[in-house]
């Protein structure tokens, strides 16, 4: 465990807790966290995760803008959901992207655990986009990512990051339950 990993851990817990609470203030914490994790993952040769942090940085900026706009118009961050057809499209897209990215990373880099790392990375991309769009399904993907990541980071000896993803798993379950409840209230209003 390094100081960098410890700081990123604390920022990650704050970030996701604020996302669960639908607070737009999650984004400043998330921006700093992804910069720190980008460095940590690059040093651990988890290149898919390192590159993912660049994507997260950009999507964090977009999410901050989008959530701020919706919150200003509605007074709260509204929840949306995908239809069945869109869910199937997302699932097929994720599966195809995992196969392509995993193949590329395993063939062209010295990445450690490329298929596992790439699967978590691709699902994270989809979940982050869904979260920025305030789609309730983001939590299901985050639960999958967290389960994959707990094992991945344990295998790499990144114990504090593994613990962070265990905390993220609990927060994702809390987020799914809370957002489902809020969506029902939102629909009834």
What is the gist of this entry?
With 189 residues, the chain is an all-alpha fold. It has helices at residues 3-20, 26-43, 47-74, 84-108, 114-132, 138-155, 159-188.
Give the helices and strands, then pairings.
Blueprint: H1 3-20, H2 26-43, H3 47-74, H4 84-108, H5 114-132, H6 138-155, H7 159-188
Helix pairs in contact: 1-2, 1-7, 2-3, 3-5, 4-5, 5-6, 6-7
Tally of helical segments: 7
Roughly what is the average pLDDT, rounded to an integer?
Answer: 90
Shape category: globular
User: Proportion of β residues?
Assistant: under 5%
Given as residue ranges, the uncertain stretches (5+ residues, pLDDT < 50) are none
Main β-sheet: number of strands, strand sense, barrel status?
Answer: none
Structural class: mainly alpha
Task: Describe the structure in your own words.
This protein has 189 residues and is an all-alpha fold. It has one domain. Helices cover 83% and strands 0% of the residues. It has 7 helices and no strands. The chain has helices at residues 3-20, 26-43, 47-74, 84-108, 114-132, 138-155, 159-188. The termini are far apart. The mean pLDDT is 90.
Annotation keywords:
single chain, 189 residues, mainly alpha, 83% helix, 0% strand
